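To whoever is on call:

I kicked off a structure prediction for a single chain this morning and the downstream step that reads the tokens threw a length-mismatch warning. I double-checked the sequence; it's 492 residues and nothing unusual in it as far as I can see. Pasting both halves so you can look.
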Amino acid sequence: MGVVGIDVGTTAVKAVLLDEEAAVVAEASRPHDLMSPRPGWAEEDPADWWTGAVGALADLDAAAGLSGVAAAAVSGMVPALVLLDREGNVLRPSIQQNDARHAEEIRWFKERFPEEALFSHTGATWNAQVIPPKLLWIQRHEPEVFRRIHRIAGSYEYVTWRLGGRGPAYLEANWALESGLWSEKERRWLGEVLALVDLDPGVLAPVRFPTEIVGEVAADGVPLPRGTPLTAGSADHIAAALAAGLLDEGEAVLKFGGAGDFLYVAPTFAPLRELFIDYHDVPGRYVINGCMATSGSLVKWFRDRFAPHAGYAELDAQAEAVPAGSDGVVLLPYFLGEKTPIHDPHARGTVLGLTLAHGPAHLYRAILEGVAYAFRHHVEVLRSHGHKIARFYVMDGGAKSPLWRRITASVLGEPVHHLETGTAGSAYGTAFLAGVAAGLWDYRRIKEVATPAGVTEPDPGWVPVYDELYGVYRETYPRLKDLYPRLEVRDA
């Protein structure tokens, strides 16, 4: 008897089957697209998530069989915004957490609900991550859609709801906390914020925590046995933190998914304005974290646009031949604006230092380096608030790249430990939670199974190069930030 975890990621739905010892039996993945029809927009089709989840489960069933599954759980991106009508139909493509179309709506909320009040309730600020400005954008630009909103869901809650035969309705605790609509202080929805956009709090379902059983499998055409318990699941980055063995303060994870996540365990609710804070999947603990709008999705963008027939290993090999620092090319990975730590939806991807001597491999390596610089920025913010990091872990798809690990270790100037959870870190974490809910193990079991697969040391020759160019990276954004809003594409 095992457990299943499904992760709704930015570029793929992944699924994993664990046995009774929490070992991986089988993994599966079904890709889908992140849509950016206009600059700064990030949307996905929830139907793709459902199709991907069913397909990935079918692949698991074909590989290992799912007849003896004790429980299942879903993780996903937060806080993705899925709008449903009274019949449960999706009203429009989801607006993703890294969408940056609503700068004007953010300003509108800042004028009407003081940021200090929002921060004291939720630990959030008015930024591109939170839900209310997105709802205001819908109200202003798609009023017919807005009038038909009956219920709001997130990515993993939507898939769980479909697995349960279009029930139950719930919102997981970290969707709630990251939405900017949930008061951690009072454990209630902030109806006073919803009232500003003329929505009733009834559009938000009850809040549930990760190992709570919220229903059972009842959908047709799903390989999971009917009646399999479904738990509330988890935010993908928090499930990844659990999969990495992050239970105790002093350890940090860099998660190289479609977006980039920086995660650090904290014992109390002590939010930082530059970063986010979430509930840990382990009760009574929190995770201080940052989320970069692009990471793996930027690598995918480069391949799809400039090298559609190349594999990532081939691109890595070409970039390996380029010197550290990409011969003076520095890239700011703000291709969808940026969330933490700058919280600027106007920011744009920027390439500095190009000459006629540079080629595609320089740009590709500069992307890997730019993401590593962005992670270092998060580390510096955390340390500036007195937090100490004892060890760095790297995980998810990008962490499979030896080159990217070596770049990251050299940019940080510290070793990075990569984990043996395949590419399914978040799916593994949420499957582990299903095992906790099913009584197969307790939380401490993760420390026994989340053993590093290896350690990548900084390259002594690269460290001083990256120290110098990281300074250029940090100086570039402040110099350009007043120009970025002038680059926005506006309706004619």
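Update from on-call: the warning came from a stale cache, not from the record. Cleared it. Sanity check on the structure: The first strand starts at residue 2 and ends at 8.
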